[in-house]
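Please annotate the following for my students:
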Amino acid sequence: MLNQDDLETVKAGAPAYLLMIDGLIEESPEDTSLLLAGSKLYSSYATTFVTDEARSRRLAVKSLSYAKRALCKNNSALCKAVDGRLDNLESVLANTDLNDQNILYGYAVAWAGWIQANISDWNAIAAIPKLVALFNRSIALNETFDAGGAHLYLGVLTTLLPPSAGGKPEVGRRHFEQAQTFSNGNNLMVNVLFAKHYARLVFDQKLHDQLLKQVLAADIKKPGLTLINTLAKIRAEELLAESSDYF
């Protein structure tokens, strides 16, 4: 599915995969690999194809639920800490190791999807510091994991707000640049999010247009990234078309 370049085909076929993974998890409810796969599938489907806000929130809850079950099965202390105080979470994270990274990162990704689906809820906004702590720990363990995916998420999270409201655009820029490096430029969505969240925030039209034109000129067919790159090209065209009006 990740190597498909036809979004409509994937959109039509994805619900069958959702039902299949639900069935597999019912049969093996403690299989952390299945739980993470289910979480990723629900999160990807919701963020890529679902426009109805209520439905997006429901799917994000399902994704987070699967990820939380995997997290609790793998590390009970961390399972409890994500629902508690930030300082306690940071203390527990300090004791995690590479054996925890896959599930720790998977939970963080699902949580990011949930926050995105509930961004108008202040409870979601309040959870961002804990999410940042999870991604920072993933970077500390191995920043190349998932081709630098934690850097991409932190790039977005640190540029959600302007500096006057606590945003850190230059920190975000460094994370986006690291994500470019660790993905070897193959993940075109990095450029799209770099343009959307950083270049627009600091009103840098030259960088904005340059990043998006690189996406439009690039080959989308990369192993495991063709689907996301197809979507990235669509998003790049939309953002570039809005450029003169935005800036």
Q: What stands out?
A: The chain has two domains: 1-142, 164-247. Residues 164-247 form one domain. The radius of gyration is 18 Å. DSSP finds 13 helices and no strands in the chain.
